[in-house]
Amino acid sequence: MSSTEFRVHHSPAEVNARWKAGAVNGLTLAAEHILQVSRQRVPLDDGVLERSGLASVDASELRAAVSYDTEYAVYQHETQGLRHLAGREWKYLENPAREEAEIVERIIAAAIERAMS
Q1: Which of 20, 23, 44, 82 has the smallest count of CB within 10 Å of its CB?
Q2: Residues of the chain with pLDDT > 90: what percent?
């Protein structure tokens, strides 16, 4: 009969803390990525809407958000048929979030992997 011995160098609490720190970092990087992609598509007139974009992370809930904060942000996002400059569009946040989902997953996974190594 053979036997193998191994030692764990990190406590479960430390492993959990490292994983969570990696997840928070990954969520931050992923939200920033979506913000940058969406800023390239946000309707542009004087740049106020584009500059109002914000990426945020709630570390306790492991949630990330990207938002735009002007009186007309929702109107511009939800109203089809408005005229926009070339490359600018309605659904300027929803489309990038959907299209970049695989990249977002890889960003978060890579950050967790780095934190665990």
Answers
A1: 82
A2: 86
